[in-house]
């Protein structure tokens, strides 16, 4: 059940993160702070994320290193990247198109950077991502075996994992939604939805076998994001209205309460266990 708890934690976190951004944007628009509220909110989020990642050097267990690293990665992504793209798209005069916000139109064309980073990780002996290790086994890429030395701090690795996974799947969806490439109702988009759902279920099955909470947290990140992208596609198909976008208070309060409950259950379980 450790993997399920970790997956639920990050799944709820996705909705909370979206709602937080919408709340910041609406406060800024309503009270006419000329983007100062939005700017300083972004700065605070980014700094908070950096602090959480720094704190991981003092965490004694890989569970809290992974947890703080993941939460720090989300805050750093939201404050530095997402808001950075909002400010950048406004400076460049980019407008919405086919329901895609300006910042996401700008993000769509960051895919070459993802390819460069992925290519680097593919040949890095110290990277132990399951997907990359699988590709190394199938392709003659490595000169020697993957490094198996001790990892003293999982925090920065987990933060980087969180940011890269969010970034990659954002861009994948944006490319699929682009009417000049596929489109929201293109068969390829339906295929992507099927893959998200199928792979997400498979990853949950794999998570059920993980006994270490720290590892479960790191494995739960792509699992939750993959499931979340399935939800995003359903919303894009107008199957339902996103409560984190509409800021539906009862629903978002319930999601936040569920997030806190899941976090408490993980914390309570960790307290019962010996240090990793």
Describe the protein's topology.
Elements: H1 2-31, H2 36-55, H3 62-92, H4 102-108, H5 111-123, H6 130-138, H7 155-177, H8 187-207, H9 213-236, H10 243-246, H11 249-272
Helix pairs in contact: 1-2, 1-9, 1-11, 2-3, 3-4, 3-7, 3-9, 4-7, 7-9, 8-9
Strand content: under 5%
Mean pLDDT across all amino acids: 87
Which structural class matches the secondary elements?
A: mainly alpha
Major sheet: size, sense and barrel closure? Answer: none
- What is the CA-CA span between the terminal residues? 18 Å
Q: How would you characterize this protein structure?
A:
It is a single chain. The chain has 276 residues and is mainly alpha-helical. Helix content is 75%, strand content 0%. It has helices spanning 2-31, 36-55, 62-92, 102-108, 111-123, 130-138, 155-177, 187-207, 213-236, 243-246, 249-272. The mean pLDDT is 87.
Keywords:
276 residues; mainly alpha; 0% strand
Task: Describe, in short, the structure shown.
With 276 residues, this protein is mostly helical. The protein is built from eleven helices and no strands. Helix 1 packs antiparallel against helix 2.
């Amino acid at each position: 059940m450790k993997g399920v708890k970790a997956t639920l934690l990050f799944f709820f976190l996705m909705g909370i993160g979206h709602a937080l951004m919408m709340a910041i944007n609406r406060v800024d628009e309503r009270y006419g702070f000329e983007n100062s509220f939005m700017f300083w909110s972004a700065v605070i989020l980014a700094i908070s994320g950096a602090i959480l990642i720094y704190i991981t050097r003092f965490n004694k267990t890989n569970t809290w290193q992974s947890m703080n690293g993941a939460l720090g990665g989300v805050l750093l992504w939201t404050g530095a990247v997402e808001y950075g793209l909002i400010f950048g798209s406004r400076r460049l005069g980019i407008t919405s198109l086919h329901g895609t916000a300006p910042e996401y139109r700008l993000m769509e064309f960051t895919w070459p950077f993802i390819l460069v980073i992925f290519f680097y990780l593919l040949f890095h002996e110290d990277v132990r991502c399951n997907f990359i290790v699988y590709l190394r086994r199938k392709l003659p890429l490595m000169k020697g075996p993957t490094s198996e030395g001790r990892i003293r701090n999982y925090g920065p690795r987990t933060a980087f994992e969180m940011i890269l996974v969010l970034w990659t799947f954002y861009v994948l969806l944006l490319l699929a939604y682009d009417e000049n490439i596929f489109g929201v109702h293109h068969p390829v988009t339906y295929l992507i939805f099927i893959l998200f759902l199928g792979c997400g279920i498979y990853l949950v099955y794999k998570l059920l076998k993980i006994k270490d909470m720290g590892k479960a947290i790191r494995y739960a990140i792509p699992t939750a994001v993959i499931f979340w992208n399935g939800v995003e596609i359903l919303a894009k198909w107008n199957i339902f209205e996103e409560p984190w976008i509409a800021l539906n208070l009862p629903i978002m309060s319930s999601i936040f309460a569920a997030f806190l409950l899941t976090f408490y259950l993980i914390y309570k379980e960790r307290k019962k266990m010996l240090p990793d």
